[in-house]
Design goal:
The mean pLDDT is 90. This protein is mainly α and 201 residues long. Helix content is 73%, strand content 0%. The protein is built from seven helices and no strands.
Length: 201
C-alpha cells in the first residue's frame, strides 16, 4: 500500500480531494434532479439536453475521472489518458448528464500540470490530450454541451501559457541556484589556494 502512494504529497491529496468532492457533488445532483425540473430547465434554456439517466452508478464510475489526479507527479500524460478513458466510459454508459462543472476543472488542472511538468513537446501533447478531454466532457453534457468549447478551449490555452511561464521561472531559479553553488565552491577553492600559497611562502 505504501508503494502505491509513494511520492504523493499533501498538496496532491488536497487537489485530488477537491476535484473528487466537486465530481461527487455534481453526480449526486444528477441523481437527485427530477424529470420535471430537467424539462423546465431545458424549456428555460438553462439546460442543453434532457439527462438520459439518474442512476446512482453515475457516482462511483465518475471517481475514475478525478482520483487519478493523485498520481500526477508520476506521469501527467498517463493520468490524463486514464481520466480521458473514464470520461469516455462515463459518456458511453450514461449518455447525457451534467459533467462540465467537474470535468472541465479536471482538464484545466491537468493542462496546467502538463505544461509545468514537461518540456515543450510533451507539454503540447498533454495540452492536446486535455483538449480532447474537454470535448469528451462536453460531448454528452446536458447543461453546457459542445457549444461551451468556444469558451473551454481558450481558457485551456491560457492555463497552458501560465503553466509554461511557471516552468520557465522554475528552470531559471534552478539555474541560478546551481550557479550560486558553483561560485561558492570557486570562492572556497580560491581561499584554500591563497592559504596554501601563504604557507608555501
Amino acid at each position: 500500500m505504501t508503494r502505491v502512494f509513494r511520492g504523493v504529497k499533501v498538496i496532491d491529496w488536497l487537489l485530488a480531494g477537491a476535484l473528487t468532492a466537486l465530481g461527487v457533488l455534481l453526480m449526486v445532483m444528477n441523481v437527485a434532479e427530477t424529470r420535471a425540473a430537467a424539462v423546465k430547465a431545458v424549456a428555460e434554456g438553462s439546460m442543453w439536453h434532457l439527462p438520459d439517466t439518474r442512476s446512482v452508478w453515475l457516482i462511483p464510475v465518475y471517481l475514475g475521472t478525478t482520483v487519478p489526479v493523485l498520481w500526477w507527479r508520476r506521469s501527467v500524460l498517463a493520468v490524463t489518458g486514464v481520466v480521458l478513458g473514464f470520461t469516455v466510459l462515463h459518456d458511453a454508459l450514461f449518455g447525457f448528464v451534467t459533467r462540465c462543472g467537474a470535468g472541465l476543472p479536471v482538464a484545466l488542472v491537468l493542462g496546467f500540470l502538463g505544461a509545468l511538468a514537461y518540456d515543450r513537446r510533451k507539454a503540447l501533447l498533454a495540452a492536446a490530450l486535455n483538449a480532447v478531454l474537454c470535448v469528451a466532457v462536453l460531448a454528452l453534457d446536458s447543461t453546457a454541451g459542445l457549444p461551451a468549447l468556444i469558451l473551454a478551449l481558450p481558457v485551456l490555452a491560457v492555463v497552458y501559457g501560465v503553466g509554461r511561464a511557471a516552468r520557465h521561472r522554475t528552470v531559471l531559479n534552478q539555474q541560478l541556484k546551481a550557479r550560486d553553488e558553483e561560485l561558492r565552491q570557486l570562492r572556497d577553492e580560491r581561499a584554500a589556494l591563497i592559504v596554501a600559497d601563504d604557507r608555501a611562502r
